[in-house]
Specification:
single chain; about 130 residues; mainly alpha; 5 helices; about 80% helix; globular
Length: about 130
Amino acid sequence: MSSFGPILIRLNAGFFVVYGLLFVFVPEPLATTITGGAPSTASGMIDLRATYGGMSIAVGWMLAAFARDEALHATGLRAVAATLLCMAGGRTVGIVVDGNPNTWMWIYLAAEIAVAAAALVALRAGSGPRA
């Protein structure tokens, strides 16, 4: 596999860990910046920390494990593509159903699609010649 694949996995791992840590420790300002608001109840903030924070850290941690083991690079690229395509799918449904997305939602959607495409290209490039 080319060196681009593991680099892409590591970059995504780092992004998810940092994003998760920010949502664990400073969820309100981050949510307000990105979405224009934050939960107004303690349970809402707890869930924000758990879902955007804890789950993002877990995704980053798993991607980092895939990046460390050359035998798992293809799995890591599949995980990057699947994660970001599912996020883009959910975001697209939200845009269609809820309407009126802010600029951040469009930036995230474009980034999710672009990075997923890059992961799929890296995966294909690393798969070698086809019989």
